[in-house]
Amino acid sequence: MKNNTLLYVFIAMILAGIAGLLTGQTGTVFGVPYLEIYSLIGQLFLNALTLVVVPLVAASIITGTARIACEHSFGSLGLKTFSLYFLTSALAVMCAWFVSVLLEPGIKEHIPNSAMVSGTEALQEIQKNQGDVFDTIRQIFLKLVPSNILAVASQGQMLGLILFSLLFGFFIPKIDAEAGKALLGFWKGIFEVMMCMTHLVMKALPLGVFGLVAKVVATTGFSALKPIAFFFVTVFCAFGIYCFIVLPLLLKLMGGINPLKHYKAVSPALFTAFSTSSSAAALPVTIDCVERRAGVSNRICSFTVPLAISLNLSGTALYSCVSVFFICQVYGLQPGWGMQFLIALLALLTSIGMAGIPSASIAAIIMILQTIGLPADGIVMIMAVERILDMFRTGINVLGHTCCAVLVAKSEGEHVSEF
Questions:
Q1: Nearest-CA neighbor of 401 among 156, 53, 162, 85?
Q2: Other C-beta atoms within 10 Å of 149: how many?
Q3: Over the stretch 46-76, which tens digit does the pLDDT of each residue have?
Q4: Residue 20: CA count within 13 A, CB half-sphere
Q5: Could you write out the three-class secondary structure of 74-113?
Q6: CB within 10 Å: which end of the chain, N or C, has fewer?
Q7: Where are the domains of the chain?
Q8: Of 189-203, 209-223, 225-239, 394-408, which range is least confident?
Q9: Are 300 and 412 in contact (CB under 8 A)?
Q10: Sign of torsion, CA 391 392 395 401?
Q11: Lowest-pLDDT range of 12-16, 322-326, 407-411
């Protein structure tokens, strides 16, 4: 993606903010609400991106795993990848833990009842599907081994699709050489076609970003930030420490990679993740950035990045941790070290396997609240800014994906280019 496209995206975000504030929810043109126009533009772009996600994930993981299995390096590469996933997510939770205990946003910023925004119907619907910790773990395993792979793929449930693709790719080299070569060629062709479709869709990136951001600003504005401003600031402090201290140190110390150049290389993926609030929707762009701009080989990229959208949601883990600490403090609960550790651990574990879709972390926060004995209704306190913060934490998720990919590539002896 050319540099001028990044400029167009940045301009589109500024124009979207201005347009959203000016038109609000009630503005119309020829009797048609601007909000509906923004929604249509954004949804068309989002649909075009998600259209290629399932075949792209399957083809990418199958081809990547098959090549790695042929080289007999599947075990070592997998160990490096999952170790980095765990490390980055654990460090994100530690940032959240540190900032929440230090700033105590729920104590210093009292939340009046009038600030608890509506959203109860959606909240009740989410709560119906929640269970205890064991039930959550059980659901993760059931999603890992579905009874119908086509059904879960059509529903966008990535865990089952990822496991199936890993096994499929791993066993391709184990069958007859001629049949294996034909299968690998088939999936490689699908991957290349999906990437070509992605490049076509990305030509509309500035327009799609405009529609998605304008809709959010028109719907929520910035007034929703006032009642829980300190919580908002606390989340941003944790985000900032993780993005501008922790990840750059990992890149520099573990891989000798210039953080600024890496961030610039993957910036189109970050803009896409921010505007769509979906790491799954941003996947095609992420793969394109990691391969073409960051210089990671398809062998590494096709294995690490698709896995990350379900197994490495460091931004989500960080946000869940801060949110639960905040709600505890608002209720007057001062958790001891044991409960603090439990909250941090649950935030880390519940981020694994979470859907890469907007507001998916709400379910995880509810589960953690119920586990530590707080009413799930407490999540209503953060709903006013949930949608806005969702955009930022999705960008952080994707940034973590790209950092893990380049670090794995460096560990495998690849020369990662600096864009």
A1: 85
A2: 16
A3: 788 778 777 887 887 788 778 777 766 667 8
A4: 22
A5: HHHHHHHHHHHHHHHHHHHHHHHHHHHHHHCHHHHCCCCH
A6: C
A7: 3-411
A8: 209-223
A9: yes
A10: negative
A11: 12-16
In the chain, the N- to C-terminal Cα span, in Å, equals: 11
How deeply is 194 buried, as exposed, middle or buried, from its count of CB atoms within 10 A (0-12, 13-18, 19+)? buried
* Model pTM score: 0.70
Tokens of residue 390, six digits: 């969702």
| Single-letter code of the amino acid located at 345 | L
Which contiguous run of DSSP H or E holds residue 28?
strand 28-29
Amino acid code (one letter) for 216: V
How many CB atoms are closer than 10 A to CB 121? Answer: 8
Specify whether the CB–CB gap between 289 and 401 falls below 8 A. Answer: no
Q: Give the list of residues 6+ apart from residue 333 with CB closer than 8 angstroms, or none.
A: 374
Cα-based angle 328, 330, 333 (whole degrees, multiple of 5) = 45
How far apart are the C-alpha atoms of 60 and 304, rounded to whole Å?
Answer: 10
Under DSSP, the state recorded for 293 is I
Dist. CA 198–CA 327, nearest whole Å: 40
pLDDT digit string, tens, across residues 331-353: 887 778 888 888 888 888 777 75
Mean pLDDT value across the chain: 81
> Buried b / exposed e across 211-238, counting CB within 10 Å, b at 16+?
bbbbbbbbebeeebbebbebbbebbebb
The architecture in CATH of the region 3-411 reads Orthogonal Bundle (1.10)
Residue with tokens 């009842």: 113
Widest distance between CA atoms in the chain = 69
